[in-house]
Amino acid sequence: MINVLDPDTHKGAQVSLANQDFTQTGVIYIGNDLADVDSVRVTGKVLDTDYSVSFDAENNRIVVTNLTTLGSSETITYYPVDASAVTKNTIIGTSGSGVSTGIQAIKKVYTKYTAVPNILAAPGWSEDPEVYTAMVAAVQKINGHWDAFAIADIPVEAKESEEATVTSYTASVTVPNLIEDSVEVWKGDGSVKGTKTTDYTLSYASNVLTVTLVNGGALYSEDKVIIKTTAAIGTKEAAIQWQTAHGYVSERSKVCWPQVKSGTGKTYHLSTVCAATMLRVDLDHDSVPMETPSNKEIMATMQYFGSTAKNEGYDDTESNDLNEVGITTACIFNGSWVLWGPHTAAYKYGTTMDPRVIFDTNIRMLMHVTNGFQLRHGLEIDAPMTPAQKDTVVNAENAELERLTALGALIGESSVEFLEVENPESDMLNGDFVFNLSFTSTPPFKSATAKVCYTSRGFAAFFGGE
Hints:
By secondary structure, the protein is α+β, with helices and mostly antiparallel strands. Helices cover 21% and strands 25% of the residues. The chain folds into three domains: 15-84, no CATH class; 88-156 and 236-355, no CATH class; 157-232, Immunoglobulin-like, CATH 2.60.40.
């Protein structure tokens, strides 16, 4: 878990609680869930000398305890956490001078904990194209070595912000499936939010939203405005269109849509469910990513398509339309709610493609083997590379591929080769050596067809025939 919230930065206005009486029990409780425990102070008193502050996890409250002579009219102050102050830039993060934040902090996972990152998800944020792009970039060659897999969402309600040129006091943007009461119009510099009717009027036809500035309004003299909208992505057709338009097609990712609801009524991003399911299935196979999370039972009771959607949901046959373009979904199958879709986001049914990108297990097994190769032989770097050591590496990798085959993660024959054409003298004299590993990851049992036919031969039984 990478924390992105900084209470010293992402905070609201200070709260002041006057006339707090410590003379009765010596304790005051703060029950505000958003109160930052580290910011709690008693005015004019010294922390850990006159009073202490602790968190009561069982009752979800902050405890302020008198240590000396706090009176009956003390003032307690604190700052509430403001999660809304976290932006996509906070999520994407920065990296430099040894300090990394947000997604960029994935490079610290190995250096701090010697754990190789495996899956990256950012529920609630990965539906932003800039965040998705950052995720896909971040999972490639982490620390210059490790490869991981990203899980992202297509939104059920897509928020867009577009700068539009004003001509003859009108501006327009193209927004399919607009949720009309979501529209906001701002000055071009983002400093002033206009008021509908007073500052502008709206019209919407053929997916085009037109904004007309009202004479005398706060935006009337603007040559550009910022139009913020929300579009409903409440059908599979809209989801596929959004995926294509925003490039959610990386082979290093799994893309999910829509959201799901649990029996408690809570709504979950499907990337959350997918990541948890993928981890659970991996652990069932000694952490080898040999089995897809598709068709595995999940905590869900229905699909959720957004607050304005009238969609009543899809069965597995209709969900296959999403799978055909690399979108993983959820549906009810064989009496249970399951994740549905074994593909990467790059998969497109009916087209010629690299076999690696067809199934999530294909590319994740490649990552598993290359990550494992580096872990197994990392300590040998800068040691003497003799012909015997070359053979040791080949034998060790052959043994690992045989182990994976016995586990069922690979099928058929695998090979590890040290080829002369891949290792010219110019490379070897610089200490650079290449090993070629070839294997076939076990494909999922994606579908089965039983062909049946009627025959009249059984009537022979009436006459003693076979």
